[in-house]
Design a protein that fits this description.
Strands 1-2-3 form a three-stranded mixed beta sheet. About 40% of the residues lie in helices and about 25% in strands. The protein has one domain: Alpha-Beta Complex (Lambda Exonuclease, Chain A). By secondary structure, it is an alpha+beta fold. The chain is built from two helices and three strands; from the N terminus they run βαββα.
Length: about 80
């Protein structure tokens, strides 16, 4: 966590270019980190392996996103449990 109380998520891109955005799976991952740490902001830092380029953004807690994540996880758990 940084001085502002944000979780820090660093993505090092190996293909040599930045996407300049967080992908949906990365947003879900950051929401889990925020939930686990009780924070409402995550500093998203994207860089290339060489370190020549960097992109930074702040991802904030979104309850609708969290509700969607937990609903999908619940559905997945029920599907797996049905196969056991």
């Amino acid at each position: 966590m940084n001085e502002q109380g944000q979780v820090i998520e660093i993505k090092t891109r190996s293909r040599g270019y930045l996407y300049r955005r967080a992908w949906p799976n990365e947003i879900a991952q950051m929401h889990v980190y925020m939930y686990l740490t009780g924070t409402t902001e995550c500093a998203f830092v994207e860089t290339v392996e060489s370190g020549a380029s960097t992109f930074e953004d702040t991802i904030t807690w979104d309850q609708t996103t969290w509700d969607d994540i937990t609903a999908k996880l619940g559905h997945a758990v029920r599907l797996i449990a049905a196969k056991l």
